[in-house]
Every structure is written in C-alpha cells, then in structure tokens.
Amino acid sequence: MNIDINAAFDSGNIELVGIDGDRVDLEIRRDAHSDFYQWFHFRVAGARGRRLVFRILNAGGAAYAFGWPGYRTRVSTDRQHWRMTETRYADGVLEFAHEFDTDIAWFAYFAPYSLERQHDLVSRIAMAPGVAHHTLGQSIEGRSIDCLELGEGPLHVWLYGRQHPGESMAAWWMEGALEKLTDPGDAAAQAIRAKARVHVVPNMNPDGAFRGHLRTNAAGVNLNREWHAPTAERSPEVLAVKTAMEATGVDWAIDVHGDEAIPANFLAGFEGIPRWTDTHGARFYDYGQRLAARTPLFQTERGYEKAKPGQANLSMSTNQLAERFGAVSMTLEMPFKDHDPAPDPVEGWSPDRCKALAHACLDTLAELI
C-alpha cells in the first residue's frame, strides 16, 4: 500500500518533498503573501505496521526556529487525544518518528482546533441563558467575526484570541472560558456576570486558521500589529473588533496567544505606553501574582522583556487598549512545548490544561473586579 500524506483540510499545512523507503521529507508551506511559517498539520495513511521517520527540511527557516530545541511534535490517531512524540532538531531539520499500529495518524505543531468545532462552540454558547451573539464584521474572505456577550454589570471585559491563527491553544482557552462563564453554578462566573459585561471573540483570524497559517490573515497581515490604524483592506478583523470596543469602552482585556520558545505560561503587559502610571501597572501585576498563587499552571519568573518608558509598540492590542481606554490589558502566552513548572510527560501543554488555565484566569478576574 502506498503512503498517503495529506493536508488538504481545515488548518492543514504540509508539502511532500519525497519518500525514500521509511523516510518522509516534508516542508511547511508559508503563510499566503508572507514569509511566516511554522504551523504544520497533516495526515498520514497507508503505513500500518511501519516505522516512519519524518523530516521537515525547512524548519531552520521558520519564523521562530529558535523555538524548535526542546519541542516535541503532537500525534493523534483519533483527533481527540494528542500525545507528544520524540522530536529532534539539528542542522535546520526537524525530525520525528512514529510506529504505525493504525491505518491513519495525524501530526500537528499543537492540538488543532477546527473551524467546525468553533462553529459548534459558538452555537452552543449562544443558546445559553443570558448570552447574546453578535457578528462584529467579516474577515477578508468573508468569514464571520463572532462575539458572544453576557453579564449585566457596568464594567466591560474583552476576551479575544487567535489573532495569530497557528496558536491554537488560544481556541482551547476560549472554549474553557466560555464554558465556565455560562455555568449557572459557578460562583466566579456569577460574580463576573454581576459586575461586568463580558465580550468574547473566540477567533479573530478565521481565514488564517482555516488556511493553516502561523501568524497572518489571508492578506499576509499580522493582526497584532494593526491596532493603531486598522483598515478594511488589510485588517478588517481588527477594525471590526476595535470599532465594537470603541462603542463599549474597555476596562479589562485578555488577548490569548501561544509562544514558540518559552516553556511556560506567562503574561505580557503594557509597560512603556505614554500614559503609563505605576498605579495602572500595579493592577496588572496584582492580577499576575494572584493567578500564580492560585494555580501551578501559571508563573511570573519567565516572560518577555518589558518595554522601556515611552517605547511600547502601540500597534499591539494590549498596549493600544491600555493607552486608548486605560484598560488593565494583558497578553496571555501559552507554550507549544510544556509548562515546565508543572509538566506533563505524555501530552505536554494540552487542550485540557488550556481550559483549566482559563478557569483559573476567570477565578482571578472575579477577585479583582
């Protein structure tokens, strides 16, 4: 039986270079109109009883190649459970092997989250009591930018994710957050709904997610560098969300992402904005400290370098929202590797733990609002 390598599906990305015996050479396809690439997701069929070695030959040119050391590829046979497999990076090539005891296996950079699952989630949550659904706008290719809203309080909380579509952990976090917020028996959710109106945008970049992009929309634009001046031509996704924010204001905001290199969960704040005050920043730092005290799935030791005074990049949403609205805004980063302070040797950082972290984030938010 011939080996079949296929990525012609929602979020698929790989190109076959060649098969030589039990060695399969591959390359990751670039984001459209862009040089970004690193996300991969493909299916292998016809290899039952064989051990195949896969080599991604262009891994060394990926956007964040410095993140490959220590990384382990995810593999699944049922598309429900994704385990890590031994992976090696050397001389610009990412290599991993798999013993096939099934007819089909799937491989991915991280556990994928399909647009079909997103549609199911949005529909299910929209039917929950007290939830309103709004279409804020459309992507370049005409896909809806969904927003789910709930709560009766005066504060406005915005949760949004997947500006970078290959960071699928953000979608799993959003699923966990929405499930908790709509749980009628959850005390933290009750407190948040009483004190705030919560606006949740589960996927800001549906085109990129469907295309299997790492970082950009269908026009090759990095949405998290558009918040200073979004346009209908380049970044209608950001324009739609920011326009809605202008109508409500923003008191708290969490932008959910994934990081290729750092093996831990962490927050990035808005240091360096022109309107920075220590009092404003202290509210952000208090949130992070409380979250770290609440769960072993979060830490404050590792993270990004802080911007110097006056040097914040205002094209990024966290900085723009803090500057424009005085919001306590933050970027949550989750790893493609594992959360080293509390590792899982089988699955690494996983969908279930993304959802658990979302619950802890909301519990912490309930304390502070």
Automatic annotation (TrEMBL):
GO terms for molecular function: metallocarboxypeptidase activity; zinc ion binding. It holds the Pfam family Pepdidase_M14_N. InterPro entries: Cytosolic_carboxypeptidase (IPR050821), Pepdidase_M14_N (IPR040626), Peptidase_M14 (IPR000834). Its cofactor is Zn(2+). Keywords: Carboxypeptidase, Hydrolase, Protease. It comes from the Bacteria. Belongs to the peptidase M14 family. This is Carboxypeptidase family protein. It comes from Sphingomonas baiyangensis.
